[in-house]
């Protein structure tokens, strides 16, 4: 009977050891799984940020080009109007000078 009790204790101890080993292995697998999921999440976040940055950069570049084009157009219009005004003033001055000669 004592042999059976000792044998049962040995079996229980072996089962506990197997169970502890299995628990350790499960913890290792779970840790590896969490690490893989975290790595994937960071990679996805990096891709999202990279895409958002590229989109923002393109948008800013487009807006800057649009503003540059508008400034150039405004400047060209102002120069044209100024040239027309000077031309008109020159014609009037020429006409006035001609009138003074007569």
Q: Could you give a short description of this structure?
A:
The protein is an all-alpha fold and 102 residues long. It contains one helix and no strands.
What features would you describe in this structure?
This protein has 102 residues and is an all-alpha fold. It is built from 1 helix and no strands. It has one helix at residues 2-101. The chain is rod-shaped. The termini are far apart. The model has no long low-confidence stretch (mean pLDDT 88).
What topology emerges from the helices and strands here?
Elements: H1 2-101
Class by SSE composition:
mainly alpha
How would you characterize the largest beta sheet?
none
Helix content: over 70%
Q: Radius of gyration over alpha carbons?
A: 44 Å
| Helix count from the secondary structure assignment | 1
Question: Which keywords apply here?
Answer:
mainly alpha; rod-shaped
